UniProtKB/TrEMBL annotation:
Family annotation (InterPro entries): DEAD/DEAH_box_helicase_dom, DEAD/DEAH_RhlB, DEAD_box_RNA_helicase, Helicase_ATP-bd, Helicase_C-like, P-loop_NTPase, RNA-helicase_DEAD-box_CS, RNA_helicase_DEAD_Q_motif
Broad class of enzyme this protein falls into: hydrolase
Residue stretches making up the Helicase ATP-binding domain: 41-216
Catalytic activity: ATP + H2O = ADP + phosphate + H(+)
Domain of life from the UniProt record: Bacteria
Name used for this protein in its record: DEAD-box ATP-dependent RNA helicase RhpA
Listed Low complexity bias regions: 439-451
Record GO biological process: response to temperature stimulus; ribosome assembly
Composition bias, Basic and acidic residues: 393-406
GO MF terms, alphabetically ordered: ATP binding; ATP hydrolysis activity; nucleic acid binding; RNA helicase activity
Residue ranges occupied by any Helicase C-terminal domain in the UniProt entry: 239-387
Recorded family membership: Belongs to the DEAD box helicase family.
UniProt organism field: Polystyrenella longa
Stretches the record annotates as Disordered: 380-474
Gene designation: rhlE
Length: 474
């Protein structure tokens, strides 16, 4: 049995985790648990089902991985081929990789085996690890079902099931896959359910999965208000790029994530930043797994400081030291705003969230303030368009490129000069080196051979002659 939940929990040692895990946390410099960790870990150690509702960046991964590793270290057994004891489901490949890296870090002083499986790459290494046997498996739904159908994974001996980022799972359309996976789980198990938001569909899924769960909730405003400065610029759509370039040049940016609404918009914006001599990389679902991993590694190591991303692609980005989050396009839902700005202000650090709000999007800004229970500072856009760089290039927005409209023609104004007569009639100059064309009645009625040009009358299609009637007997 684990320790009871008390308000005096001030360090990880108070949570009675195994010594091997405490040693790893000490090596990483982690002393004090976050609120979601302090409240969740004791209940998980006690074996309860749990609903954890907290935004990204609050330490949810450690909240479930630390007690799970402690459980595996306490009840040591040999790993059985193709039969994991723990399954952690993640909505994206990037997030699955991040969870696997965290588990590797926290369990460095333990003897256990784990694997991370996801689509977009060859399954050979993954199936090889499964055949050898793993204690803990991190997976995305699609690849998990695929390998289950091939007979490489059996969940009949599963002891702990974790569903991470449940709200995003449903947003990405994984509900049918989740139902298929849940049907194969044994009845005797511990289930942990983590989500940043809790809409009705997510609550219904949790009720079908959990038994008498403990609910742990960390309000979104506790993190956003204290650690993240939130500002918004009221800016027309066709001026957002100019404003972004000025902010990136004038502000003290360490590293930043810029959010766009579409994949094409991310590519266009990254290209414009390159033209403005600002190194940036776009990351979204249309890029290959190898390309996405290369971009993420470059962002982690500091090779790239600016990342342009869509909402879904950014779910797996768990990088410390992000100083700014810029909402180049306003999020479609207020909950997405919480996910976005959670990329900065992590682990007690401070961050800045900047939102570009178009004139017709003020209502969305009010919805965000209502959800986060905070007030976003509105800044007046008084910048001057930058000279040179990307501003001399094509400044059309993504929508204008998708649906170009012809520009209005300028009204013709008659001016006195060499190309106009006193009567106001416009005279056209011929091209240099060519003879002047003088229209006359004779020239207009005759060709260069002196013969009148006549049009042959159209006689129409000739009628077909009727076939002769057949004679009888032939």
């Amino acid at each position: 049995m684990g320790p009871p939940l008390t308000e005096s929990t001030k360090s990880f040692s108070d949570l009675k985790l195994r010594k091997a895990i405490l040693k790893s946390l000490e090596q990483e410099g982690y002393d004090v648990p976050t609120p979601i960790q302090a409240e969740s870990i004791p209940h998980i150690i006690n074996g309860h089902d749990l609903i954890g509702c907290a935004q990204t960046g609050t330490g949810k991964t450690a909240a479930f991985s630390l007690p799970i590793l402690s459980f595996l270290d306490e009840d040591r057994r040999s790993a059985k081929p193709n039969c994991p004891r723990v399954l952690i489901l993640s909505p994206t490949r990037e997030l699955a990789i991040q969870i696997g890296e965290s588990i590797q870090t926290y369990g460095r002083n333990m003897k256990f085996r784990h694997a991370v499986i996801y689509g977009g790459v060859s399954q050979h290494r993954q199936t090889k690890a499964l055949n050898r046997g793993v204690h803990l498996l991190v997976a995305t739904p699609g690849r998990l079902l695929d390998l289950m159908n091939q007979g490489f994974i059996h969940l009949n001996e599963l002891e702990i099931f974790v569903l991470d980022e449940a709200d995003r799972m449903l947003d990405m359309g994984f509900l049918p896959d989740l139902k298929k996976i849940i049907k194969t789980l044994p009845d005797e198990r511990q289930s942990l359910f983590f989500s940043a938001t809790m809409p009705q569909k997510v609550s219904q899924l949790a009720n079908s999965l959990l038994v008498d769960p403990i609910r742990v909730e960390v309000s979104p405003n506790s993190s956003t208000v204290e650690n993240i400065k939130q500002v918004a610029y009221m800016v027309p759509k066709n001026k957002k790029r100019d404003l972004l370039l000025q902010l990136l040049e004038d502000s003290n940016f360490g590293s930043a994530i810029i959010f766009t609404r579409t994949k094409r918009g991310a590519d266009l914006l990254a290209t414009k930043l390159h033209q403005g001599k600002i190194k940036a990389e776009a990351i979204h679902g249309n890029k290959s797994q190898a390309a996405r991993q290369r971009i993420l590694n470059g962002f982690k190591t500091g090779k790239t400081h600016i990342l342009v991303a869509t909402d879904l692609a950014a779910r797996g980005i768990d990088v410390d030291g992000i100083t700014h989050v810029i909402n180049f396009d306003m999020p479609q839902e207020a909950e997405d705003y919480v996910h976005r700005i959670g990329r900065t202000g992590r682990a007690g650090a401070t961050g800045i969230a900047v939102t570009f709000c178009e004139p017709g999007q003020k209502r969305g800004l009010r919805d965000i303030e209502r959800l986060t229970e905070s007030q976003i500072e509105i800044l007046t856009n008084t910048f001057q368009p930058l000279q040179g760089g990307a501003n001399d290039q094509d400044t059309r927005t993504e929508d204008e490129l998708r649906d170009p409209r012809p520009q209005q023609r300028r009204k013709f104004q008659r001016k006195e000069g060499p190309t106009s007569s006193p009567s106001g009639e416009r005279k056209f100059k011929g091209r240099p080196g060519r003879k002047k064309f003088n229209k006359s009645s004779s020239e207009s009625s005759e060709s260069s051979f002196g013969k009148p040009r006549t049009k042959k009358p159209f006689k129409g299609k000739p009628k077909r002659k009727p076939k002769p009637a057949r004679r009888p007997g032939k």
